[in-house]
Amino acid sequence: MRSYKAKMVEPITLPSRERREEVLAEAGYNAFNIPAENVYVDLLTDSGTGTMSDAQWAALFRGDESYAGSESFHRLREAVEDVTGFSRVIPTHQGRGAENVLYGCLVEEGDVVLNNAHFDTTRAHIANQGGDPVDCPVEGARDPVRDAPFKGNFSADRARDVVDDVGAERVPVVVLTITNNSTAGQPVSAANVRETAAFAEEIDATFVIDACRFAENAHFVRRREEGYEDRTVADIAREQLSHADAIVMSGKKEALVNIGGFVAVRDADLFERAKQRAILYEGFPTYGGMSGRDIEAMAVGLREAVEPPYVEDRVEQVEELGRMLEERGVPIYRPVGGHAVYVDAGELLSHLPSEQFPGQALVCELYREGGVRGVELGSFAFPGADRLELVRLAIPRRTYGREHLEHVADAAAAVGERAPEVTGLEVVSEPPTPELRHFSAELAPV
Ligand code: F0G
Predict the structure, then answer these.
(1) Are 103 and 126 a contacting pair, CB within 8 Å?
(2) How close is the Cα of 15 to the center of ligand 1, in Å?
(3) What is the pTM of this model?
(4) Whose CA is nearest to atom 2 of ligand 1?
(5) Does ligand 1 lie within 6 Å of residue 252's CB atom?
(6) Is the CB of 212 under 6 A from ligand 1?
(7) Does any ligand 1 atom lie closer than 6 A to the CB of residue 95?
(8) Residues 240 and 208 sit within 8 Å (Cβ to Cβ)
(9) β-strands 246-250, 206-210: how paired?
(10) For residue range 214-223, what is the model confidence (pLDDT) as tens digits?
């Protein structure tokens, strides 16, 4: 049962089939180029696209816009301390701002950073510092059908191999991304958090948790890990974060806001250095990259994220979409993750070779069929990488209802029925930076 109802609505329309065809061609068969007014159900991302609560909207009016020493900052600091246990906090404009501040202090030319799996912006910030981001997924993480409770875990064995190779002194940072966005939103167990923290300590590295989906992760721990079934999500979340030396947070996910983020650290010296860098790139450390009113909304949202009805509801809605797709014979990555269902386009459109971007072809077909927007995470987004051809259907928080999800599942099923007729795509123009090509490149049917 949903634990909220709508108090404000936003009209959406499904453009006609002819119009959708035109829009696709005008967008160069790239969903990022589609104007949002032409999208019916938008599952491009769960980042900043959710619905705020009435309490969050009310909090906006309390925003203290003082340049220094804002009251709003103090309320955020308190919320962060209550929810995460960290008292040294710097607000940033979003998650990648937090990454820039933190990794700019910790990573130098020639360093290696280990992560269960780097999210794109994390990878880019490490690389921007001259570092080498290395993923350490567990066995089976890239197997879309293997059923295991914590496929998002960090492999300390793999990490030890890397350290044996390069030397511990070259690995200043170990990151754990919970849940693991680059591995189909899979959770990380509490045991793995402890194990990763111990590994980081062993090599004298700073242990960072990318906490943007921390409540969803805590929910999975409660559901799947022995000994946690009677604990609250809030309690589990705090326990998980208690092992970290620092956290980076995109508030656009589980602080339930449209914009914002923060970095929080334990060490007083690192805090001072991070504040200096924040002044350079974000703003004075009591507002960072945010307005006072947005900080207020984030302080309220962060507390809401660990309240019992919210996260249960949230993860179950994602599971529900997974179930609907499976009932209609659409292949998905199993088990379903916390924020999104990842459709296995390589399986659904198995006649298309990876050079013809089966994932991107599916993204286009979902739009053509139902005005649904998802995002490709395969050969188009990650050129040259050996990856599954996935399409992520990320669900904005507290935003869509069952009818919308049924519409999405029906659209995917309709594409599945005519799968052999779906044509592949080729890139016709792309920006100079290959890592960013999926955001703006244009394609055409082969
Ligand atoms: N870390 C993770 C694990 C993320 O998923 C994201 C963003 C970031 C950091 C960066 O945060 O966008 O606030 O700067 N993920 C979004 C997504 C964009 O669609 O998955 P940001």
Answers:
(1) yes
(2) 29
(3) 0.97
(4) 119
(5) yes
(6) yes
(7) yes
(8) no
(9) parallel
(10) 999 999 999 9
Angle between helices 233-242 and 214-224 (to 10 degrees): 110
Ligand 1 contacts CB of residue 96 (under 6 A): yes
Our answer on whether the CB atom of 100 is closer than 6 Å to any ligand 1 atom is: no
Whether residue 435 has pLDDT greater than 80: no
Which residues make Cβ contacts (< 8 Å) with residue 9, sequence separation at least 6? none
Show the domains of the chain with their CATH numbers.
17-39+312-445 (3.90.1150.10), 54-304 (3.40.640.10)
pLDDT digits (tens, 9 = 90+) for 182-219: 999 999 999 999 999 999 999 999 999 999 999 999 99
How buried is residue 280: exposed, middle or buried, by Cβ count under 10 Å (0-12/13-18/19+)?
Answer: exposed
d(CA 262, CA 145): 35
Going from the Cα of 419 to the center of ligand 1, the distance in angstroms, rounded, reads: 31
Nearest CA to ligand 1 atom 19: 45
Give the integer Cα–Cα distance in Å for 439 and 430.
9
Interacting residues of 7 by C-beta distance below 8 A, sequence separation 6+: 54
From the CA of 339, give the closest atom in ligand 1: 20
Token pair of 216 as six digits:
């969803």
Which residues is 9 bridged to in the sheet? none
Tokens of 315: 């993860």
- Distance between CA atoms of 387 and 378, rounded to whole angstroms? 6
Could you please report the per-residue DSSP string of 184-214? TTB---HHHHHHHHHHHHHTT-EEEEE-TTH
**What residue type is assigned to position 37 of the chain?**
E
Atom 9 (ligand 1): residue with closest C-alpha?
Answer: 95
Long-range CB contacts (< 8 A, 24+ apart) of 74-78?
A: 75/295, 75/296, 75/299, 76/262, 76/295, 76/296, 76/298, 76/299, 76/302, 78/299
279 or 435, which is more confident?
Answer: 279
